[in-house]
Amino acid sequence: MMTPFRTYRRLLLPALLLLARVAAAQATLPVLPLPADPARASYAPGPAVHAQHRTNSLTLPFFDDFTLPLEGPPKVQNWLPTGGTLVSNRLSLMPLTRGAATLDGLKADGKSYSGSVSTFNGATDSLTSQPIDLSGLSPNDHVYLSFAWQAGSIVGVPNRSFSTIPVRLDLYVKTNLGDWDRAWFYASVNQRTGFRQQVIDLNQAKYLHANFQFMFVATGNQSSNSDNWGVDYVLLNRGRNAGLADTTFVDIATSSGLLGGNPSGGLRSPLRRFTAMPVWQFNAAPTPTSELTPNLGVNINNLTGTLPVPVNVLGTVRDLASGAPLGTWLQRSIQALLIPRLTAVAGPATGQPLPATATPKILRYTLALDTRESPPRVANDTIFRDVEFNNYYAYDDGTAEAVTQLPTYGTGQASSFAYRIDLNRPDYVRSLRLYPVYTASDQLPRAVTVSVWDDVAGKPGAQPRASKSVTIPGPAQFPAGWQYYEVTFDQPVAVSGIFYVGYSQPSSSTTRDLHYGLDLNNSFPAGYLWRHDNVGVWDTIPLPNRRGALMMRPVMTNNVATATASAREAAAYSLYPNPAHGTVAIAGPAFAHATVLDALGRTVWEQPVAQAGQPTLALPMLPAGVYTVRLTLADGRTVGRRLMLE
Length: 646
Description:
Layout: H1 4-20, H2 47-50, E1 62-64, E2 86-88, E3 100-103, E4 122-128, E5 144-151, E6 168-174, E7 180-187, E8 196-201, E9 214-220, E10 229-237, E11 252-254, E12 276-278, H3 279-283, E13 296-302, E14 309-319, E15 325-336, E16 342-347, E17 361-370, E18 382-390, E19 402-404, E20 415-422, E21 427-434, E22 436-437, E23 446-456, E24 459-460, E25 466-472, E26 485-495, E27 498-505, E28 515-519, E29 529-532, E30 538-540, E31 549-550, E32 552-556, H4 567-570, E33 574-576, E34 583-587, E35 593-597, E36 603-606, E37 616-618, E38 625-632, E39 638-645
Parallel strand pairs: 12-18
Antiparallel strand pairs: 1-10, 2-3, 3-10, 4-9, 5-8, 5-10, 6-7, 6-9, 11-13, 13-16, 14-15, 14-17, 17-18, 19-28, 20-27, 20-29, 21-26, 21-32, 22-28, 23-24, 23-25, 23-27, 28-31, 29-30, 33-34, 34-37, 35-36, 35-38, 38-39
């Protein structure tokens, strides 16, 4: 067991060593384990899913390469809806096929197992198969279970395992007596591995029964995602070649990352610098392809076990809302190599210029393989990436794999982070969206100041052009459906050319660390993140391994200087029914998204991203009273309409 002192020492030692080197070299951005992942609460299995226990056992073969779901708990057709394991394509490094299961130490709802920063090591995530019927089989049927596993993830290296501080991955198999035999384990040696194949011999009578199951169990730090394990390409079948040579199907599939580039995630952003940007700023670029990346792609994996295989690759782009195809950005034939199995497939997103339409939109870039497989495995032959053209800039993709924080100073000026933004035309900054992450021991509201700085000789100015101070509520009061918290300036802030936007943490005698989300699958251009210390010095701050993006997003207004629409424009919108009990409909022109404020002007609900702009608001249970529905228009201005809830 780990004492609180040893836990703090284990978590803080890397940060202390980093601070000790600041005087000798430029500090890098602190990358700390994620104590909670608020985004997961939206797809954690609910009572309806938990009720889907199978009434009959599965039959052979059992196979899962975790291609689906794209993100969320493992599919209930194969796995019990318990255990906290996450399926995604953003944590594992170069899995066999697109997507893998990650046992990362956070529960299905994104909270920690310990509920505390100081913790004992213990069991965290598990992955348990549905019952599988192996009755009627004998050792002569050659039943083997194979799987690929990985120690660590893009988050980092799992801590070293000790007898008193275990960090390990175990596989258990269920006997005909209902006991769980440990069939395999790996204890961490503080090293990250690639995916390795493991084969388990099940040719014993005690395993060949009608309700056979197997279960992966991770053990490690229960307070964060610092100890990660990946599982992929699970295959259980009879008649296998001693279980040694046929650990994969004959398959060619999309994988993850790109050799020589990002090590995890699917396709990178088709934008050259950003992951999202205002549609009018994209349209104002010097050419229709100026903001697109010249190198968009992903690794593919040849699991055939034979010679290199010819594969046709097609990259397309379409408007996600209308389904309208916009064109082809990649079309070629390649050889899927066998040694090494991974082959990078990439092409220029600039191959398909985008139309300069003013409507906000989400475009889907797809890369599909024609592998001529029989039977075809279409799901893992296709991978896609969405890019949003709306009213904000982003360097992150909306998911946090780690957290970062500003240095805590006892005296002196406030410390700040600031992103550099290069505009294609003058504009106004309306607000800044931040991604706060709370530890189990710190659920309190936090004060923050957001600011806009001018560019002065290639760095942020000494004084901000504009600032706004607010208190971000604790997670219990966080608006439903939010992960980002939006801080709006009193008036939009005029900017042109290069500007900087970010947030500040005041110096304080209380050493309270305030965490904000860090996306490890994307990055920002070199020299675009700046830090202000407590003596007034701005300096660029790089990321370890040049990967990661601080999750803060400036929202623009399309060069509109006023924060609110005119009375005539506002009169075009109405709410019904009004008074209302729950669901409210909005009649009027299109809008970008809706927010509900209480009588004190506090945000109590915001339209989820997936429903942004929809005219029906499914409001949660709110106390009776007077509210304001604030509609944000496509140009960044807002409209307020009074709503009475009974």
